[in-house]
Structure formats: structure tokens, C-alpha cells
Amino acid sequence: MKGTCLCGAIEITAADSEHIGLCHCQMCRRWGSGPMHAVHCEGAVIFAGDTPTRYRSSDWAERGFCGQCGTHLFYYLLPAEQYILSAGLFQDHAFALNSEIFIDEKPDYYDLKDNTLKMTGREVFEKYT
């Protein structure tokens, strides 16, 4: 998959993925004013052009964005050394929604009709720590 930030200063190349997951946690919603539409990437992620700006948002993760236009690029999970990319970077790619995490933090003002795997924050931490 190939994608770019809004201004085109950063180009991203990652292995093809068919699915996205949504994260409804408070940090993702504060960062993007809605759930993060997340593409879990297997293998290398290549950034070309400008170097992404990184922000250490927790003990276990960094968030990356374009220093020029502010486009949200990734959530980087430090223990797993894994990039989770913003689905919006890949405008020409069709994804299917397959999971939602931190469903217990989702606000009441939106609901999704998709029948997906749903996990609370506690369930996420129990499974991945």
C-alpha cells in the first residue's frame, strides 16, 4: 500500500492489508476527534520525504504526524515495535472493518452498524500484556 499525508511531504509504503480496526479510547478520540481507523501493519513500514514528528503519548506508544500539515500518520506500539497506520492515508485502498477496541470508552453520540469483534480496554490490556 502507498499513501501520503495531506500536503504530500511524507509518503508511506506498507504491506497490503484488507482490514481496519477502530480504537475508541479517549486518547485516540482526543487526537483525531473520533475513533482511530487503524491499519495493523505486518512487516516494514517505509517513510519517504520528511521525517515524521513523534510524540510519546504513553509508556507504551508514540504517535506520529506530519510536521508540516499535521496529518495523523501512526500509532507506534513500543513493546511490539509495530506501526499501526491511519487508514485515511491510503485513499485508493478498500478496507473492511473487523474490530473495535476500547468499546467501553466510545461516546454515546455515535454507533456503528457493523458486527465486529468488540473489546473493552480491560480486555485489550489482558490480551496484549
From TrEMBL:
Keywords: Lyase, Metal-binding, Zinc. InterPro entries: CENP-V/GFA (IPR006913), Mss4-like_sf (IPR011057). Residues 1-126 form the CENP-V/GFA domain. The keyword Mitochondrion does not apply. The keyword Zinc applies. It holds the Pfam family GFA. Belongs to the Gfa family. This is GFA family protein. It comes from Gilvimarinus algae. The lineage of its organism: Bacteria, Pseudomonadati, Pseudomonadota, Gammaproteobacteria, Cellvibrionales.
